[in-house]
UniProtKB/TrEMBL annotation:
Protein name in the entry: Uncharacterized protein K02A2.6
InterPro entries attached to this UniProt entry: DUF7083 (IPR055510), Peptidase_aspartic_dom_sf (IPR021109)
Protein source organism: Culex pipiens (House mosquito)
Annotated DUF7083 domain residues: 42-128
Matches recorded under PANTHER family: CCHC-TYPE DOMAIN-CONTAINING PROTEIN
């Protein structure tokens, strides 16, 4: 049986092969049952980390979340490599925010970035979207709430002060910060924006100690004042080179008068001839009627002309009125008694103004301007004309805080060279919606103040 040894050898080889396969299968099963050390650490740390969900309305930002678990990654997970830390970190980011992060780094993949790079990108994407100036301003303005105890208040103060980054702030920078924080008037809005931009630029590019030769000077109070004057001069120069015509604004509004050349169609035919024109334009005023032998109408309109003529009876006039083209002029003494005056506040100073609903603009004299502190004035962009047609001398204009009945708003005030010209015009009346308020409740009669160039009511309805 020569074939028996060969058969035995074949059986032995097959048995050895089966045993080897069984050992490999057992090793694979053991590997699946017992994960590697890195996976064990990741699974263990993941249970100790709360999932991050970005919510700026509730003050939940990534930098605060990571600060809470930073030691978990750097100390407890110090045996993990960068890729394992990145996997653990992104595993604890909410699904919605994980998708936003992945979309922000396309076409790259999260595994293409190291752990520190991933932290930087997440802080930028889910961090506070406010500037350092905003954090510092909030710190300076923070105050204790009535519901907070002193421990909570102290903790909030500590948090605001840390966000302030006091160590990075020099003495000159703090003075500049305080200077800008005090520019709260709406008229300083453009200057305030420019200065905040300069503060942010210096913070983003800090200068070494001592400053390098040829470097830009540090931001100081003196630099800020120079910048303010530069911006103001720039605005004034811009106004000078503007090629726009000045707006002619009448200080007192006038009712438009139709010219003699205007031709309008009357609502009814002429009673002298029956054509559609006014009686004053009728060509039959000198015509001799062949029927009634009377002058002034066309044949067939005898009765109509007689009826109209009988109605035109001259009314007696008072000796206090003078007739001039259908307008009655009232004595000046009567007009002065009808004028209304109102007390308002201009930049905190009480001023008496004449209330003039026919004036387009609000004006004060140079003496009142001096009384309220001589605020900086700009070149006037209007030509004011009085009711009599005379030019009103406008020195300039400025923005002021106007207070009427405990309500304060900002408005434009024009300064005149006239010593007694103080008028509240339509612009201020509309700003405070005084049309709906009875003027008698706002005004007080004052007969001492009067000026000839003010518009007078020269017609009686």
């Amino acid at each position: 049986m020569s074939s028996d040894p060969e058969l035995k050898n074949a059986i032995l080889k097959l048995t050895s092969l089966i045993a080897t396969q069984q050992e490999q299968i057992a090793a694979l099963q053991q590997a699946n049952a017992n994960p590697s050390g890195s996976e064990k650490i990741i699974e263990s740390l993941a249970t100790a980390i709360e999932e991050f969900r970005y919510d700026p309305d509730d003050g939940i930002f990534f930098d605060a979340w990571f600060a809470r678990y930073e030691d978990v990654f750097k100390e407890d997970g110090k045996h993990l490599d960068d890729k394992a830390k990145v996997r653990l970190l992104l595993r604890k980011i909410g699904t919605q925010f994980h998708e936003r992060y992945v979309n922000s780094i396309l076409p790259k993949h999260p595994r293409d970035f190291k752990f520190d790079e991933t932290i930087t990108k997440l802080k930028k994407l889910f961090g506070r979207q406010t500037s350092l100036f905003h954090a510092r301003y909030q710190c300076l303005q923070y105050a204790k709430n009535e519901a907070d105890d002193f421990s909570s208040y102290a903790a909030s103060v500590n948090r605001h002060c840390e966000a302030f980054q006091l160590k990075k702030l020099s003495s000159d920078q703090f003075k500049a910060l305080r200077f800008v924080c005090g520019l709260q008037s709406p008229r300083d809005a453009e200057i305030r924006t420019r200065l905040i931009s300069k503060l942010e630029a210096e913070e983003a590019n800090p200068q070494p100690e001592p400053p390098a030769e040829g470097a830009a000077p540090r931001l100081t109070l003196e630099n800020l004042v120079e910048e303010c004057h530069r911006i103001i001069n720039l605005k004034q120069d811009t106004q000078l080179v503007e090629k726009t015509e000045k707006i002619n604004i009448h200080a007192v509004a006038k009712q438009p008068r139709p010219t003699a050349t205007e031709k309008k169609v009357p609502s009814s035919p002429c009673w002298l001839c029956g054509d559609m024109h006014y009686v004053r334009d009728c060509s039959y005023k000198d015509h001799m009627c062949s029927r009634c032998k009377r002058q002034g109408h066309k044949e067939g309109y005898c009765s109509m002309a007689e009826q109209k003529s009988s109605k035109q009876v001259e009314q007696p006039r008072s000796k206090d009125f003078v007739t001039s083209k259908g307008i009655r002029l009232v004595k000046q003494t009567d007009l002065k008694q009808k004028r209304k005056y109102i007390r308002i506040g201009l930049n905190g100073t009480t001023v008496q103004m004449q209330l003039d609903s026919a004036s387009d603009i609000t004006m004060i004299s140079k003496y009142v301007w001096a009384q309220i502190g001589q605020p900086h004035i700009h070149a006037a962009d209007v030509n004011a004309v009085g009711a009599a047609g005379g030019r009103i001398n406008i020195i300039g204009k400025f923005n002021a805080n106007i207070t009427v009945q405990n309500v304060t708003k900002e408005g434009c005030i024009y300064v005149t060279g006239d010593p007694d010209f103080n008028v509240m015009g339509i612009d201020t009346i509309e700003a405070f919606d005084l049309w709906s308020v009875p003027f008698n409740s706002l005004c007080a009669m004052n007969l001492d103040q009067h000026h000839e160039s003010l518009g007078r009511c020269n017609s009686v309805q």
